[in-house]
# Entry
Amino acid sequence: MSSQTPAGDDRLRPDGTPYSVALTEEEWRARLTPEEYHVLRESGTERAFTGEFTNNSATGTYTCRACGHQLFTSDTKFDSHCGWPSFFTPLAGDTVVYLEDRTMGSLRTEVRCAQWGGHLGHVFEGEGYQTPTDLRYCINSISVSFDPSS
# Structure
């Protein structure tokens, strides 16, 4: 599930192809709030239980806050009690990309938006949740927007 971006270039997907949305750092800073920039561009994490979508149970679609790309649907969201919105699968196989993450002293799988590479969160496997995939996509609320009309 995980892979590395070639030469650490955040303009390229892990398979080496360019992202379809490519802005300069100045353009990203102008588009995003400082908090959004920290999470989406610097792979930060919002504090647990503080995100606006942690307890959202409305029907709709979660999209990338920076580019509007559809990522997850509410019917795949579940309450994991971890402090962040959790999903058991993305909307489609090409909706997100995966990167190997060793920043916390262990191997994790980072989840990024497939359109531009923005950090969304991490995916964990084998935690025992009663979901169809046995996966938990642990996503920062600040990385996504919610569209109740879709």
Remarks:
- The radius of gyration is 14 Å.
- Confidence is low (pLDDT under 50) at residues 1-8.
- Residues 6 and 16 are 6 Å apart (CA to CA).
